Amino acid sequence: MSGADARTAGADFFISYTRYDRSWAEWIAWELERAGYRVTIQAWDFVPGNDWRGKMEEAFGATRTIAVLSRAYLTSFYGREEWQAAQQADPGGFERKLLPVRIEDCERPEPLRTWVSIDLFDLGVNEARRRLLAGVRGALEGRMRPDVAPNFPSPPWRARPTAFPGPGGPRSSASAAPVPGAGAADGADSAWFSSPASPPIVPVRDAAGQRSDSVRFSPIGSYLVGHRGWVSSVRFSPDGRTLASGGGDAVRLWEVSDPHQARRLGAPLHGHTRGVHQLAFSPNGALLASASEDHTVMLWNVHDPRNAHQAGTSSGHARGVWSVAFSPDGHTLASAGDDHTIRLWDVEKPHEPRPLGPPLTDHTDSVRSVAFSPDGRTLASAGDDRRVLLWDISDPRRPHCTAALFTNTIQVWSIAFSPDSRTLAGGAGGEDHTVLLWNIHSLEPEPPQSLAGHSGWVASVAFAPDGRTLATGSSDKTVRLWDLRQPHHPRPLGTPLVGHTERVMSVSFAPDGNTLASAGRDQDIRLWTRAPNP
């Protein structure tokens, strides 16, 4: 028996997948073999000269089957045969012969719905590797007891005082919950949003007739349809007339001068070979940057949105690119990704973007988000290494790290500066579901203020142009608004905006602050318009 045949016959794992998920299957197989396991995978082990059916019979003889779960896999005839064969060999799951590994958040049919899975979606490479190997080890051993003793629990973070960090703020507050009647005087401007197609918003009033914070929203907003996959990013152009959206299929442009009659502009922009994670408009609105899983950042000439076309490409990253942002003067582009680096690019010649010095390598895991401060002095970065770093970019060719902000060991997946550059907002990923606010002008680094409300991780944060409202989108399928008019006492504003049927991945305010866009895994883009105060 050849070495390859011996490996197949006595394999620890057979990887079951569809051709659409081959890159995931190969990554899983590589990591398992590197950890010392024996793996059978069709892409590597079904070679010329083999009988396909014979090899499949051998593959089913592996100790366990890893089913790489995605929407495509769950609709595949062969995929169903493979996972059902493993499940029928161990219907109670007592021997753990079937290991579902989800690479996207997809609904599972019975009996897979009750099978404990290893979830790898929306993770950086290091965390995904850790979860994969820990899950496999747990399946083999039948238990996932940690290798070291857990630390003695500290008091819950949310039980601590929630004073906004910085001089002049109160040292403690009784609760982060909204207080009826507290806040600005009656008649103060409030950012309440409704769907353009919704009935009028009716604010709830208390017994005394005073307006409260409870606002009724239509459950379904008007939405833009066109994407054939998840939508990970939406951004308004600086003049507010165009909305850009990007996701699993392409980049699209929309005419939104009148949000009630939004429509597509031109053909979809194709060029990336994998999904788009984030978009950014240049300050003058002539360029659109797109960050992709295919390791590249593309620049698009959108001066005439109806005839947009590719202007240039930067390809310095070694892995997928999560985030992209333009400097306020439009001369510099920042990008960050799974290779743990941040790169700065000179984009004065969009057809030929040039790197500005070596990459910034202070992060130790995937960098999920970068943002320039509106005053142009600071770049912020955040990611899976549970650090938020601030960089002095007075000279983009010689940036240097000036501070590492407290994160309470939370992964931060989205960051945004307030218009006055004094506050940085962050959306917590992973197991935490909070929104974090840092006063970056404080003389001494302090813990962030933590806003609780979402029941899922926070994928996107965006300030309104006046800085008085923050919008957040979450895996709990909702968009929430936060009143920041009193910086020391931010509070929820109204009820969550609902309508998305899967997790919300991006939120963005129009430049006039009167329209909010949201997008997510349900392939829809929803527009919300500001309702007049009653």
From TrEMBL:
A Pfam family the protein falls into: TIR_2
Entry-linked Gene3D superfamilies: Toll/interleukin-1 receptor homology (TIR) domain (3.40.50.10140), YVTN repeat-like/Quinoprotein amine dehydrogenase (2.130.10.10)
WD repeat residue numbers: 224-264, 269-310, 314-348, 360-401, 451-485, 497-534
InterPro entries from the UniProt entry: TIR_dom, Toll_tir_struct_dom_sf, WD-F-box_domain-protein, WD40/YVTN_repeat-like_dom_sf, WD40_PAC1, WD40_repeat_CS, WD40_repeat_dom_sf, WD40_rpt
PANTHER family: SPERM-ASSOCIATED ANTIGEN 16 PROTEIN, WD40 REPEAT PF20
GO biological process, one term: signal transduction
Keywords tagged on the record: Repeat, WD repeat
Region (Disordered): 144-192
Protein name: TIR domain-containing protein
SMART domains: TIR, WD40
Amino acid composition bias (Low complexity), ranges on this chain: 170-192
UniProt keyword Transmembrane helix present: no
Residue span(s) of domain TIR: 9-140
